[in-house]
TrEMBL record:
Mg(2+) binds at N192, D267. Catalyzes the initial step of the lipid cycle reactions in the biosynthesis of the cell wall peptidoglycan: transfers peptidoglycan precursor phospho-MurNAc-pentapeptide from UDP-MurNAc-pentapeptide onto the lipid carrier undecaprenyl phosphate, yielding undecaprenyl-pyrophosphoryl-MurNAc-pentapeptide, known as lipid I. GO terms for biological process: cell division; cell wall organization; peptidoglycan biosynthetic process; regulation of cell shape. This is Phospho-N-acetylmuramoyl-pentapeptide-transferase. It comes from Luteibacter rhizovicinus. It catalyses: UDP-N-acetyl-alpha-D-muramoyl-L-alanyl-gamma-D-glutamyl-meso-2,6-diaminopimeloyl-D-alanyl-D-alanine + di-trans,octa-cis-undecaprenyl phosphate = di-trans,octa-cis-undecaprenyl diphospho-N-acetyl-alpha-D-muramoyl-L-alanyl-D-glutamyl-meso-2,6-diaminopimeloyl-D-alanyl-D-alanine + UMP. GO terms for cellular component: plasma membrane. Its cofactor is Mg(2+). The lineage of its organism: Bacteria, Pseudomonadati, Pseudomonadota, Gammaproteobacteria, Lysobacterales. The gene is mraY. CDD domains: GT_MraY.
Length: 360
C-alpha cells in the first residue's frame, strides 16, 4: 500500500524512492508489526480474560503446569493482526507470492481460531474434531500447492534443490504438489505440537522466519542468486517483507508470552505460523533447509510419532511424555531451562541453514 503511494508521490519527492528498496521496507515491516503487537497486546489479554478463554491444563502432565490453568489463550490473533497490517502496509500488493502466503496464513489461522473458540469460549472439550481440522488443513494446503504449480513460470520454481550441491536440481513435475502439501500441512502441525511451554514455539519461529526472509531476498535478486548458486525466483524478494512482519509480530508476542506467560498463542497462532513458514520455504525452494533450520519443530513432531508407534507396537513408551519438551520437564529440568536450551538449539540450526548459502 505504502509502496504504491510512494511511487505516485515520488515524482515530487525524490526521497520517497527509498521505498523501492526491499531491505528498507523489510525493516519497517518488522518494526511496524512489533509496535502493533506491543500496543494492542495488553488490551487483547484483558479481552481474552473477560471471555474466560483460559488455558486448560492436562492433569496427567507436569504438575508445574497446573498453575497455568486459566491463562488467556488465543493470543495468536494478535500475531496474525500485526502480520496482516504490517504486510499490507509495506509489501508490494501486486505480488502474487505475498497474497498466497497471506491467504495460507489466515486460512490456517481461521481453522485454529475455530478450534480454540469451541474449546475455550464455548467450553466444548472436543473443539473442532481432528478429522475436520486435518480435512480443512489439507484443503488449504493443496489449494496453495496447486496454485503455485499451475502458475509457475520457470522450471526452477518447481525443482527440488539439495543443499551443499550447486548443480543438483531435481525436476518434480506434479510431485511438487505432494511435497508442497506435506510441507505446509506438516509444518503447521509441527509448530502446534511445539507450542507447549512459555515462548518455546514463538522464538524458533522468529529465527526461522528471519532466515527465510534472507533466502527470499536473495532468491528474488538475480545477481545474488546466481552468485550463491540458489534458485532465482522472480518476485520472491517481496516475501522478505512478510517474513520480517512475522518476526516482528513474534517478538512483540514474546513480550507477553515469555516465562511466566501472560498469554498463550493457541492453535490460531501455531497452525498459522507453521503453515506460513512452510509456504515461504516452498516458494523459495528451500524445503530441505527448512527442515534443518526448523529442527526443533521436527524433533518435537518425531518424538510424538515415535512415542505413539512404540506404545502401539511394544506397549512401552520411549519418553516419559511426548512431545519431548515434557520429557525433559519430567526429568526435573525447570521450564525456563528447557525453553532457553531449545532456543539455543534453534539458533545453531538456523546458522547451519544459512551456512548452506556459501557451502555449495
Amino acid at each position: 500500500m505504502l509502496l504504491e503511494l510512494a511511487e505516485w508521490m515520488g515524482r515530487h519527492f525524490t526521497s520517497l524512492h527509498l521505498f523501492q528498496y526491499i531491505t528498507f521496507r523489510a525493516i519497517m515491516a518488522a518494526l511496524t508489526a512489533l509496535a502493533v503487537s506491543l500496543l494492542l497486546g495488553p488490551a487483547l489479554i484483558r479481552k481474552l480474560a473477560a471471555l474466560k478463554a483460559g488455558q486448560v491444563v492436562r492433569s496427567d502432565g507436569p504438575q508445574t503446569h497446573l498453575s497455568k490453568a486459566g491463562t488467556p489463550t488465543m493470543g495468536g490473533t494478535l500475531i496474525l493482526f500485526a502480520i496482516g497490517v504490517s504486510t499490507l502496509l509495506w509489501a508490494d500488493l501486486g505480488n502474487r507470492y505475498v497474497w498466497v502466503v497471506l491467504l495460507v496464513t489466515f486460512a490456517f489461522g481461521v481453522i485454529g481460531f475455530y478450534d480454540d473458540y469451541r474449546k475455550l469460549v464455548l467450553k466444548d472439550s472436543r473443539g473442532l474434531a481432528s478429522r475436520w481440522k486435518y480435512f480443512w488443513q489439507s484443503v488449504f494446503g493443496l489449494v496453495a500447492a496447486l496454485f503455485l504449480y499451475y502458475t509457475h513460470q520457470l522450471p526452477a520454481e518447481t525443482a527440488l534443490y539439495v543443499p551443499l550441491f550447486k548443480q543438483v536440481a531435481l525436476p518434480l513435475g506434479g510431485f511438487f504438489v505432494v511435497i508442497g502439501y506435506f510441507i505446509i500441512v506438516g509444518f503447521s502441525n509441527a509448530v502446534n505440537l511445539t507450542d507447549g511451554l512459555d515462548g518455546l514455539a514463538i522464538m524458533p519461529s522468529v529465527l526461522v522466519s528471519g532466515a527465510l526472509g534472507i533466502f527470499a531476498y536473495l532468491a528474488g535478486n538475480k545477481l545474488f542468486s546466481e552468485y550463491l548458486g540458489i534458485p532465482a525466483i522472480p518476485g520472491a524478494g517481496e516475501l522478505a517483507i512478510f517474513c520480517s512482519a512475522l518476526a516482528g509480530a513474534g517478538l512483540g508476542f514474546l513480550w507477553f508470552n515469555t516465562y511466566p506467560a501472560q498469554v498463550f498463542m493457541g492453535d490460531v497462532g501455531a497452525l498459522a505460523i507453521g503453515a506460513a513458514l512452510g509456504c515461504v520455504a516452498l516458494i523459495v525452494r528451500q524445503e530441505i533447509v527448512l527442515l534443518v533450520m526448523g529442527g526443533v519443530f521436527v524433533m518435537e513432531t518425531a518424538s510424538v510419532m515415535l512415542q505413539v508407534a512404540s506404545f502401539k507396537l511394544r506397549g512401552k513408551r520411549i519418553f516419559r511424555m511426548a512431545p519431548i519438551h515434557h520429557h525433559f520437564e519430567l526429568k526435573g529440568w525447570p521450564e525456563p531451562r528447557v525453553i532457553v536450551r531449545f532456543w539455543i538449539i534453534s539458533v545453531v540450526l538456523v546458522l547451519i541453514g544459512l551456512a548452506t548459502l556459501k557451502v555449495r
